[in-house]
Design goal:
The chain is mainly alpha-helical. It has 11 helices and no strands.
Length: 182
């Protein structure tokens, strides 16, 4: 499935033991409850996830949310592209940044799937607000612009302050997904 090879590749870069890499791969899918991203029969959960992402972005960063809507961009233009390979493809030119993103994801857990993408949008906010149409943002959705430093990116991610209520909503999606899977 699209994106999984990037995750497997990331683990294979960390160990030469293919079985250990497979175990790590399986553990991240199960531990972080992201299997719903890859299963075709979980469209309803993905839609709920996207809707909550939109709602969270709109609450925390209304100007970014408004601008994305004005240019006709929705989370399905970028979110799955970032989440399926767990950001490895997006930061493909910078392995150290991809590793730090994974560290953040492991520390944050499931709600990192909201915090990190919103942080990327915050880091790119100036470019998004200058966009006249969707095509102007397409490159931002494919790769982090080269003029945004690692420090700027992580400061932007750190600036995303999710409320306890938001985290609770994320956990509800995760728990419904876990219950449906197992």
């Amino acid at each position: 499935i699209q994106g999984m090879s990037y995750i497997a590749g990331m683990f294979l870069l960390q160990t030469e033991d293919t079985y250990a890499a497979f175990e790590m791969f399986a553990n991240i899918l199960v531990t972080y409850h992201i299997l719903f991203l890859y299963r075709l029969d979980y469209q309803e959960t993905r839609n709920e996830f996207f809707s909550l992402f939109n709602q969270t972005l709109e609450t925390l960063y209304p100007s970014i949310s408004t601008k994305l809507k004005l240019i006709g961009s929705t989370p399905d233009h970028f979110l799955l592209k970032w989440l399926l390979p767990l950001f490895v493809q997006y930061f493909g030119e910078s392995f150290p940044i991809a590793c730090r993103i994974w560290d953040r994801l492991i520390i944050c857990g499931f709600h990192g799937l909201f915090q990190i993408p919103i942080g990327i949008l915050v880091a790119c906010q100036e470019k998004i607000e200058q966009a006249q149409e969707y095509i102007d943002c397409a490159s931002i959705f494919n790769r982090l612009p080269k003029d945004i430093t690692e420090e700027q990116l992580f400061n932007a991610i750190d600036s995303v302050k999710l409320t306890p209520q938001m985290i609770q909503q994320f956990k509800q999606i995760r728990n419904r997904q876990v219950n449906a899977t197992f």
